[in-house]
């Protein structure tokens, strides 16, 4: 199975970081500006391409065919114009119920001197990988609908139940195409595999394409709206910066499947995040007397990340594509500032990995909601 990996680094937890210690009760949010965190270094190995079925041949003939096929694959790997259509043969097609999709222009000009568009589709596990270029004069919901149907037919897999996408500018086209196919469109930045794949393709494909335009800015840049006031139904009673060893985080991930716990996880093995089990992962714990209803509300928001604005003593919650809330504020003083800075430093040291936990009490060992989150910058395309 194709995978991705971040460059390994020594992770440290600042000594000033406090575990399971409340900072403040929820206070009235204030509006503040926000910037994306710095990008974590990363690289992906080359992704495998879809191979058709083979007839029975002798061992010698098969070896010769394999050698020729490997040479052809190597040539394809070096050709940035080659399109990708791959399905992991060990994957159950019926398990691919959720796809991640991007349909956008690339910093590449076609023979007409117009920007080339590309459809990129995958699933969270990268068992499905598909790319296809399009001229800019056929970009509409009909083209997208036909392409989605084509993926299903060409690879012999059913249409998905959901398709996640992260560009608000493409919402109309994607929504219309999905609705006509009976697929639920989900606007969300929790397209981690897709976002990292696009980052990899920029370095290994787009910049090597003969039509590449150096310095070209993305046509559909991601929105970064001013944060809004938090809806009443999303308020908790108390919150605290906390930390858990990675081993405990993995246990919480397992509880999402084994218990009635709301939340969402990330495939750390697929992401190749090589962190020792004893490494402390920063998180935010929220307690509420109505913890289960609160977790249920949060579960429908496609929670993406949590960011601390130290200057404004505020926490920013990002959900969906471009919705950002001032999640909470705290009284600014040297102690709380140091703790907030330590939390952000710990998050950066772990490659952006962090979590949100909703509990009935901050002293409890159990969670009713748990979301494993990963801060990612916008893609370069």
Automatic annotation (TrEMBL):
Q: Name one Pfam family in it.
A: Tab2-like_N
Spans annotated as Disordered: 1-81
Q: Where is the RNA-binding protein Tab2/Atab2 C-terminal domain?
A: 218-373
Alphabetized GO MF terms: RNA binding
Question: Biased-composition ranges for Acidic residues?
Answer: 63-81
Please list the residue ranges that the record marks as compositionally biased, kind Polar residues: 1-27
Q: Which InterPro entries match?
A: Tab2-like (IPR009472), Tab2-like_C (IPR046761), Tab2-like_N (IPR046760)
Q: Where is the RNA-binding protein Tab2-like N-terminal domain?
A: 99-201
Indicate what this protein is called per its UniProt record: Protein TAB2 homolog, chloroplastic
């Amino acid at each position: 199975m194709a995978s991705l990996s971040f460059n390994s680094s020594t992770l440290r937890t600042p000594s000033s970081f406090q575990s399971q210690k409340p900072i403040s009760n929820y206070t009235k949010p204030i509006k503040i500006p926000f910037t994306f965190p710095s990008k974590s270094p990363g690289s992906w190995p080359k992704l495998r391409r879809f191979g058709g079925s083979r007839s029975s041949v002798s061992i010698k003939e098969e070896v010769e065919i394999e050698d020729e096929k490997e040479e052809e694959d190597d040539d394809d790997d070096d050709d940035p114009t080659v399109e990708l259509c791959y399905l992991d043969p060990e994957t159950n097609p019926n398990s691919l119920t959720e796809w991640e999709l991007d349909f956008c222009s690339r910093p590449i000009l076609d023979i007409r001197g117009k920007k080339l568009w590309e459809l990129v589709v995958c699933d969270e596990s990268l068992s499905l990988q598909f790319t296809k270029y399009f001229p800019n004069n056929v970009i509409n919901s009909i083209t997208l609908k036909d392409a989605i149907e084509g993926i299903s037919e060409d690879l012999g897999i059913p249409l998905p139940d959901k398709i996640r996408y992260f560009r608000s500018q493409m919402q109309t086209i994607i929504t219309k195409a999905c609705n006509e196919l009976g697929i639920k469109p989900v606007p969300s930045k929790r397209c981690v595999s897709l976002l990292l794949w696009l980052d990899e393709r920029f370095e290994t494909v787009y910049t090597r394409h003969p039509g590449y335009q150096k310095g070209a800015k993305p046509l559909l840049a991601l929105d970064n709206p001013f944060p809004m006031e938090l809806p009443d139904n999303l308020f908790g009673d108390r919150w605290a910066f906390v930390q858990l060893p990675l081993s405990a985080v993995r246990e919480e991930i397992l509880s999402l499947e084994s218990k009635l716990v709301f939340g969402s996880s990330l495939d750390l093995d697929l992401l190749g995040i090589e962190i020792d089990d004893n490494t402390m992962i920063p998180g935010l714990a929220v307690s509420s007397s109505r913890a289960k209803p609160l977790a249920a509300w949060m579960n429908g928001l496609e929670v993406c990340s949590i960011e601390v604005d130290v200057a404004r003593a505020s926490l920013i919650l990002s959900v969906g594509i471009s919705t950002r809330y001032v999640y909470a504020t705290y009284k600014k003083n040297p102690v709380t500032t140091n703790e907030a800075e330590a939390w952000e430093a710990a998050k950066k040291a772990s490659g952006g990995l962090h979590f949100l936990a909703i509990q009935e009490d901050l002293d409890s060992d159990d969670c009713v909601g748990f979301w494993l989150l990963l801060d990612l910058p916008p893609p370069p395309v």
